[in-house]
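Protocol check, entry for the methods section draft. Step 1: assemble the input record (protein sequence plus ligand SMILES). Step 2: submit for complex structure prediction. Step 3: store the structure tokens unaltered in the notebook. Ligand used here: pyridoxal-5'-phosphate. Step 1 record:
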Amino acid sequence: MNYYSLNKQAPNTSFKNAVIKGLAPDKGLYFPERIDALPHSFFENIDALSHTDIAFEAIKQFTSPEISEAVLRTIIEETLSFDFPVVNINKHISTLELFHGPTMAFKDVGARFMARCLGYFNSDNSNEVTVLVATSGDTGGAVANGFLGVKGVNVVILYPSGKVSNIQEKQLTTLGQNITALEVDGVFDDCQDMVKRAFLDDDLTSKMQLTSANSINVARWLPQLFYFMFAYKQLHNTYDNLVFSIPSGNFGNICAGMMAQQLGLPIKHFIASNNSNNVVTEYLKTGSYHPKPSVQTISNAMDVGNPSNFIRIQEIYNNDFEVLKSNLSSFSFDDNQTKAAISELYNTYNYIADPHGAVGYLGCKSYLKQHPNAHCVFLETAHPTKFLDIVEDVIKDKVELPEQIQSVMNKNKVATSITHYDDLKSFLLQRS
Ligand SMILES: *Cc1c(COP(=O)(O)O)cnc(C)c1O
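Step 3, stored output:
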């Protein structure tokens, strides 16, 4: 499969090149040239397919021919070495738990898949890369863990000082080896801006191959479409009219869900559930799109003022506002509503949600008010212990620390503080 740049000013390129480069030379995001729907039989027989089978069939058109079928199967098997259970909340709402991976964040899947693709492309040592990634919380840990020890890949993670949780910070600052953490005096958007600037800086790109591991990278973004298929497999015999509520920040996850729908997965509707960073909620209401500086919330992985993948969503729906609106609703909730939802889920349904999942739950409730016949699945994108202070404070109870989390808590943080783009630049140049 070849990919084109959404800015339309760069040549089309292969999967391999799109993964290694991250962003096209004209600063556009890459998008597949074609999306071929899967045969009906695939969805009819989905009960008989393993997660690996499903993922393999769903993604192979996007990764061939550079990744052979045998290699792809191995990459997928290694990527999906944990579970994706659906938990029933009530008659109309279920949750798909995406936090059973090594860093307990849904981003584990994309990070592990991408790391293995890059590792494969560098197997003859010809493609050494520096992965530069901005994180508002969970990306950093998932990328650090997914890429740890991958030969020929150096990972540099930028995170906003004081704006990620203690556990998240530990996960991205304690691994060592090929992973370095830069603590930025600023907000997530500052981190993301620095990363984008580095990619366009000839002084850097002439000396090193930089790539991203944010969901702008196709190898991070596309594997997320698996989730929707796994949920469908578990629910389609019980419910019709499946809708998904996705707690959204950069809109990569929801956009991957829309790719699953393009592949033929019978999804009725998408709900972009947002915290107070409500650019898309406002857009669907007013028809005008106004990125804003991000505001800090308790669901900090969604504190994004200018969601990078929204342009891909517009491409999927041919930039047709009406078509987009018929497939996508969006609601925005503030921190008090989010806390009330965590409390309601715990007290009424005995379910402990993290703040992101709680926003997804609220999105389901708002949508179901107008569409009582739907069954809504909200994605639970992080384990509640990753937001321990907030969750324990709201439910007035203790949450047990899973083993994956316990093991990083006693390690020492190692991070370099930076303030300006020039700090990042000199840091990278020193190491080149
Ligand atoms: C990254 C993240 C999100 C947002 O996902 P996007 O693909 O950026 O929309 C939601 N919840 C958690 C816990 C995350 O880490």
